[in-house]
Amino acid sequence: MSAAPGTVYLVGAGCGEADLITVRGLRLLERCDVVVYDDLIAPDLPDAAPTGAERVYMGKREGRHSASQEDICALLIQRARSGKAVVRLKGGDPFVFGRGGEEAIALQAAGVPFEVVPGVTSAIAIPALAGVPVTHRGLSRSVHIVTAHTADAPDGLPPDLDRLAQLSGTLVFLMGLSRLEDIAARLLSAGKRVDTPAAVLSGGNAPHPATVRGTLEDIAEKTRAANIRSPAVIVVGDVAALELAST
Prior knowledge:
The protein is α/β, with parallel strands linked by helices. Helix content is about 25%, strand content about 20%. The strands form three sheets. A five-stranded parallel sheet has the order 3-2-6-1-7, sandwiched between helices. A five-stranded mixed sheet has the order 8-9-12-10-11, with helices on both faces. α2 packs across α3 (about 100-110).
């Protein structure tokens, strides 16, 4: 399979080792002219691009942005219009809080051909690597992925969080470590039990892997004591008490 000139491929790299990328994503990477890559991918994954391919780092992390989203979109459009096959390599899945939707909209508006190659989102992968299934028959029949960076909310949390708290499934919060105390307080005030299991999980390609388990009552205190650093995934619900270690 060849990467078509003038096309942008929004490729999810998954979470963890380089071989967790999909076969299709890897094949496109091996045949591209340009790879534009993010933080939180396996460090050696861009090396899979051809020796002569252009490599452009444009990661975006809380408190540290190498480029604006507008600049990233402009680069993708410019390289594609110059006849290059471009792989936009994103950690996790491009369309799960990865701004892949914004990039796809910009490419579509510019008339640039693009293809989405899904990856495994950190909302599922990081809990799985820590032995937490986000769904489990009898414990959780649904999973809800929530951002803790809502721009128009005073505390950064979605205004409908109180309604989400009434659901019996699993809540997974991304980009929420700095707001963990607010998350717990909002869920408790909305009626969640104080003994509801909760976990804070940092893994995959995070620089400081760690796992903290507790309840909504004590998870913020335990996480502070463990000095957990971003990025981390927060899981709330009965499944957060599970620890299904690989053998």
